[in-house]
Amino acid sequence: MIYKSVAAIKNGGPEVLQVIENELHPPKAGEVCIRVLAAAVCRPDTTVRAGKALYSGTPLGQKIPFVPGYAIIGVVDALGEGVTEVAIGDRVGALTVVGGYTEYLYWKSDRLIPVPVALDPAEAVTLILNYIVAYQALHRSAKIKSGDKVLLIGASGGIGTALLQLGKLAGLKMYGVASLSKHAILIESGAIPIDYHTQDFVAVVRQAEPDGVQAVISGMTRMDYIRGGLGLLRQGGTLVSFGEPDSFSTLFRVLGTMLKVNLLPTGKTVKLYGTSTYFIGDKKPYLKDWATLFKLLEEGQIRPIIDRKFPILEAAQANVLLESGQVTGNLVLVAPELL
User: Fold this and answer.
1) 131 closest CA partner among 285, 288, 289, 245
2) pLDDT of 57
3) In a domain, 293, yes or no
4) Are 251 and 220 spatial neighbours (Cβ–Cβ below 8 Å)?
5) pLDDT at 246 (0 to 100)
6) Whether residues 197 and 140 fall in one domain
7) Residue 163 structural domain
8) DSSP letters spanning 248-314
9) Same domain, 141 and 185
10) 233-241 and 269-272: which strand pairing?
11) What number is the average pLDDT over the span 10-15?
């Protein structure tokens, strides 16, 4: 039996994504085969496709050809030898980093995320990456508490809108930096919008909060945003950067700033957030936080904003839209029956 995936046949723009055919085969020992119901389309997909990703250890990213796709939700279709964690028919998620733009995925059984079957897969898949980043940046890195004043830099994309919803739920006073066309969603979430095209976010927040803010959560790694955010922190405040650097030079500048701020007695802290610890460290905090997020979704306390759904094999078109800058919230690829 044949199944299809969308692979980057070389590094470049969305046009390098091509539909390829694969042979369906029994999973190896310790693996499961998952029929993919939904896959997230997110910024790291575009950087690894373009050959600019740093998280794989090389600026060229993955070996060509490869299938992008950072996160999926699906149904266990077959089990490899020795798999006891799940059964056929179970709903599961996976933080894949690459591999998600596909109809079927082979994945290690000890890296599966339990997903409640009652949830809409298109909504739930946004929790696997975007909402876990937002939740852990707020609660584990910045350690926010109700009443805190925070600045969100990049507040309209998938992670940005997750930050808005989770911040409102946590009782934060929020300032959000986004383009004017996306201010409505910030206002709806209770945030005070700042247009980065026409306003100086540092001046706006400093005038409104002369004593500073408790946390700055930034999806932008440009040094002017990081320096500006640091200048707005009160004593004891934390800046959390989750944005993916566009080059090693940017990464080194960010790391240098973090070391300088954290070593000097400034009373401020810089933290870099990434999901790599899920793969090399303790998985329990992630599983606990995903379970919390799934419960919030079940209860209707959060509701992911999905700008548009595409069929899985139309990932190239989804990448075009993502890079247009016109997306508010999330883009999701889904199986045909979910369209």
Assistant:
1) 289
2) 43
3) no
4) no
5) 67
6) yes
7) 128-276
8) HHHHHHHHHHHHHHHHTTSS-EEEE--THHHHHS-SHHHHHHHHHHHHHHHTTS----EEEEEEGGG
9) yes
10) parallel
11) 95
Indicate whether 73 and 95 sit together in one domain: yes
Q: Is residue 285 part of a domain?
A: no
SS3 state at 80: coil
Q: Please state the pTM of the whole predicted model.
A: 0.95
Answer whether residue 229 shows pLDDT above 70: yes
Same domain, 141 and 263: yes
More confident residue, 61 or 250: 250
Q: What CATH number is given to the structural domain containing 165?
A: 3.40.50.720
Mean pLDDT of the chain: 93
Q: With a cut of 50, say whether residue 60 has pLDDT above it.
A: no
Pick 207 or 277 by higher pLDDT: 207
DSSP of 169-204, one letter per residue? Answer: HTT-EEEEEE-GGGHHHHHHTT-EEEETTTS-HHHH
pLDDT of residue 264: 82
Same domain, residue pair 226 and 312: no
- Which residue pairs from 323-327 have beta carbons closer than 8 angstroms and sit at least 24 positions apart in sequence? 323/13, 323/14, 323/46, 325/179, 327/157
Tally of domains in the chain: 2
* 38, part of any domain: yes
